[in-house]
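Reviewer comment 2.1 asked that we show a complete input and output for one of the modelled complexes. We chose the coenzyme A case, as it is the one discussed in the main text.
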Amino acid sequence: MISSLTYESVGEPVGGAIPLELRKAQMTDIAPLLTLINGYAGKGIMLPRTEFEISENIRDFSVAYAGEKLAGCGALHFYTPILGEVRSLAVDESLKAHGVGRRIVEMLVAEAQAYELDAVFAFTYVAEFFRRMGFEEVERGELPLKAWKDCLRCPKFQCCDEIAMVRVLRPQHWEQARPGLGDNPLPPFEGDGHILLPIIGKL
Ligand SMILES: CC(C)(COP(=O)(O)OP(=O)(O)OC[C@H]1O[C@@H](n2cnc3c(N)ncnc32)[C@H](O)[C@@H]1OP(=O)(O)O)[C@@H](O)C(=O)NCCC(=O)NCCS
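Response of the prediction step:
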């Protein structure tokens, strides 16, 4: 099952034009991953990542290459036995709108399905993109507290405007498990989106 995650897709055309190689990331991808992700982080669009963090989580990452160029990346990070996050999703500026992002999300969802997750979620500013990928908007408080650990070091911690979105993979299981999500879920944000540091500080 998990072995099905050795990726094929080499040379498959994207948008009718760009041959794309999709695969799990390797250590040699760390430098281009840092450049891509921190390029967007510099514009406040994504969370910055350090070399240490990417190295530590390299097995979460999948990459898409157009020839020698890193066209895009994304990561699947596990939080509970049934729930994972799609994060660090980025497509090179010059290759946006060619279906690269879609291909990466599909690859991460296939990985989540191989691990029999019930659902995946994302925190995002590009809700329409994720809607097109089968995600639906949810109250942030529906996600388990663990999912918020990155928020602690986010520059927008006190004024978060990201949208929480979920794609359910196993509807029956998910519906049964939902009440169990209450392993300290946060209350939904109110008003200006401020949250209480002491609550998060329990992480
Ligand atoms: C968001 C992002 C990953 C999308 O990647 P992409 O390769 O350009 O997207 P695709 O070409 O695969 O688009 C797939 C679909 O989503 C739509 N879409 C893509 N970006 C969109 C956007 N910003 N707003 C609305 N729709 C969008 C496309 O029109 C396409 O629609 P279709 O169903 O009609 O084909 C890319 O724009 C990006 O890297 N943005 C900066 C980093 C970022 O915001 N990452 C998300 C962090 S959660």
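The longest strand covers residues 69-80. We note this here for comparison with the apo prediction described in Section 3.2.
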